[in-house]
Every structure is written in C-alpha cells, then in structure tokens.
Task: structure prediction
Amino acid sequence: MIQLRVTPEISLADRPVKIHVSGLAPAQLVTLQSSLTDERGVHFEARAFYRADEAGEVDLEQAAATGGDYVGVWPMGLFWFLKPEKLFYRLMKRDVSCPFRFQLNLFDSFQLQPSDKIPPLATCIVERWYVRPGVERVPIKEGRVRGALFLPPGPGPFPGVIDMFGGAGGLIEFRASLLASRGFAVLALAFFGYDDLPRVLVEVDLEYFEEAANLLLKHPKVRGPGLGVIGVSKGAEVTLAMASFLEQVVAAVWINGTGFMNGTPLRYKGVHIPQIPYCPERLLITEMGALDNHHVFRDPQDPAYAEAAIPVEKARGEVLFVVGEADRNFNSKLFAEMAIERMKSHGKKNYTLLSYPGAGHLIEPPGSPLCSISLIRGSPKPVHWGGKPEPHARAQEHSWQEIVKFLECHLGPTSNL
Result:
C-alpha cells in the first residue's frame, strides 16, 4: 500500500517536518507536489521528481530530487521552494491566528503540471502555524504606541523583544509570533502606515521607539532590565539607532539594513541626524519590470555624508548583523562592514556578523520561501529584493537559529517552549 507520511502533520512554520513515501516499486519515478492558497487567494506550488530506493521508499532527508523546483537533498524543499502562480507575490502570513494549510500530493511518474484527470497516488494535509497554542496576542494602542504584543503561555517573566519590518509600513506579525512561540515576549511594532500613525515615514522620531521600549518593559510578564530589538530593512536602520541611543536595548538584530539615516532624518530629544537623500534618477528597471533600488543610495563612504551615520559605537549592548550578500535593495554588506569598522575604531567588540553569499534582502524565518521580486505598498512597480533560492534557503535556516541563540544569550533564557 502506497503511503505518504508527513511527521508531524501539525507544526510551527519554523520547525522541520519529515516527509516519507513507502509502498512504491523499486526505482519508481514519482512526483511530489505541495500547494497552498494564501489569505489573498494567491496559489503557490512546488514540485520535485524522485526515484524510489530498492525498498520502494523515498525519504526526503536522504533522497535527492532529480529535478523540479529544486535538485539535491532538501528535506524541506517542498516548503522552501514554493512559487506563486502569479508573478511578484510574496508568501507572507498576515493572520497568525490560523495556519497555512498545505496539500501534499504524490503522483506516479513525471508530472510537470498535474491535472484533475490524474489522481494522486496519495495525499496529505499539513498545517504550518505561526503561533503555538497558548500564546496570547494583545493589541497595543497605548499612548502613541501601536502594535501587537505576543506573550508565551505561563506566568513568566519572559525576555522582551521589539520586532519591526521596513518600508512597506503597516503591522507585520509573523516573526513576532514565532519568537513568542520560542518563549520571548514580543511586541510587533508598527511605526507608520498603520492605524492613526503617519501614512508615510518622513522622520524617525526615536522617542516613539523609546516609549515602546518602556511600555514593553513595564509589562508584568516581561523580564528586564534590558530588551532585544530585531528589524529588517528600514526596521534594521531603526534597530541600530535604538541600540545606539536607548539604554534599554541590550541585544539588537540588524537584518539587511543600513548604518546611516537614508531618506529620513532622525530626531531624539536634542539630537538630530540628517538624512542622506535618495537618488531616484538612478533607479533601474529590470527586464522583469521590477525596480532595482540598489543604486538609489548615495555612496555612504563620501565624507559629505558623515553626519548622517548612526553612532553605533555608543551601543551598550550586543549587535548581530545579518547580511544577504545578493541583496538588491541595499548594499547591506557594505553598510554592515562600515558599521563594524566604526565600532572597531572606537575599541568596541560588541558585534557579530553573519554574512550569506547568494542570500537576498528578505531574510526571514525558514518557513518562508525566497521572494526575489514582489509588489510593495507605495511602489508603482514590483521591487527587486535579490537572492538565489538554494543559498537563500540555507541562510534563512542558519540565521534563524543563530538569532534565537543570540537573543537567549543576551536576554537570558526563555521558558524552553
């Protein structure tokens, strides 16, 4: 009897599953296909072709795909190499209260585009959750602060983390809910384009982020005295500024950002950091019709922009720089290297660099497939993020484990959920 087994069938999106096929003929050629429809009705699929071993089995932890959306041994390839049916769509969990439900199908022989006329040999439904049972989501609308607080089950206290995304604005929660599922109390923080916050970001008012930090630390289930911050893109820029100016920040995770105020100035009490203006006339449109922003940034090494640098040497806590070397949005590698050199020049050693060749801009938890080009709010055309599928998948898997370890190391242990 042919069986397709996924263990476990219900799991967190950042945790691996085991996929095993049995009951086939020795050396039988089969197609494995995964599919899901996201919350906006966009369909995603991945497929790979395998040959059964002498026992008539395919174990994705050992078997190499011969072709399809990936080749080689990729135990999670059916999730990590999903592609949208429509171009330029990013698979992103918007409502973490419900899972992504994947359908996995096993077909006989080579099926490039299975149709309804070809019944699968076996099928399985897999649920991938972004929040574990018992994690509480608390909407935050206090003072100026807007966001959502995720609290692990139990009395706590838990190490606190502020989580931010970038230029799309709004409130994105899936990374915060996954971190809460790992035992952190996490505030997914919006800072523009959400609720009654400014529609567009015209300046970084660091007092807003200080208010958010104090709000998180005063929660009875949050363990102080310090907290962590994690941000990607514009959120990474803010993360570095928070680490530099706010004594509450003892651990900062910077993912593909800059070390300067680009496009928006910073204000904090009596401090003002000017912006480096963008060069929109240097924007490139790729053969796919996407915007390549890589060249709209002026050279940060130009002495004329020295005053726009974030004074990262003032950071009291540890900083983890996560770089995708194939980032087409920022020259993230250069910005990370410049920030680290600035820290070194002041005798500081409170930094760690993780740099990944072939990884793009959107380095996310490992449940997320590479998104190299996508539509983004406020942009007239899709944006080119860069990256190649295989190295990007490896970067996401490795960096996520390192990020969790980094936060645990510098904020103290979680409840080991």
In short: The two ends are 37 Å apart (CA to CA). The chain has a mean pLDDT of 96. The first strand starts at residue 3 and ends at 7. Helices lie at 77-80, 174-181, 206-217, 234-245, 332-345, 389-411.
